[in-house]
User: Which sequence fits this backbone?
């Protein structure tokens, strides 16, 4: 449904939303989110370019969110690293579908629109209402 890059970006952003008390370094984020550090570094650069995170270089450097948890949505994050692809014209370039998408591609685009709308409505704050990282559920026998 979403790319691995988007998944990694979402994990990192949720981690940062949970740890707003200072800058978080790539090794800390990578370990907690189970994302390879080298890949995470590239993802974080894209998030910084999009203005979603602040980055600070140096010995005490790291990343922090640029906005509040209520102001950042899944949509913002996904669009920053691997935008959702919408179908605006016939992927087969069929002349009969030049003015209007066929039923199949229309339905696929409607599904993408529903996902997009759900992502727009879901903030980091909403995700934090159910702890993700650091909380280990107790197993019962």
Assistant:
């Amino acid at each position: 449904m979403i790319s691995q890059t988007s998944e990694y970006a979402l994990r990192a952003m949720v981690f940062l939303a949970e740890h707003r008390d200072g800058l978080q370094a790539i090794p800390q984020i990578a370990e907690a989110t189970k994302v390879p550090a080298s890949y995470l570094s590239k993802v974080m650069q894209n998030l910084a370019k999009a203005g979603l995170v602040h980055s600070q270089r140096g010995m005490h450097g790291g990343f922090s969110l640029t906005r509040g948890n209520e102001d950042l949505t899944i949509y913002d994050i996904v669009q920053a690293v691997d935008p959702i692809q919408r179908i605006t014209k016939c992927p087969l370039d069929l002349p009969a579908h030049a003015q209007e998408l066929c039923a199949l591609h229309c339905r696929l685009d409607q599904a993408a629109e529903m996902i997009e709308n759900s992502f727009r409505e879901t903030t980091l704050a909403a995700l934090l209402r159910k702890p993700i990282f650091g909380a280990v559920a107790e197993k019962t026998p």
Remarks:
- Residues 6 and 78 are 5 Å apart (CA to CA).
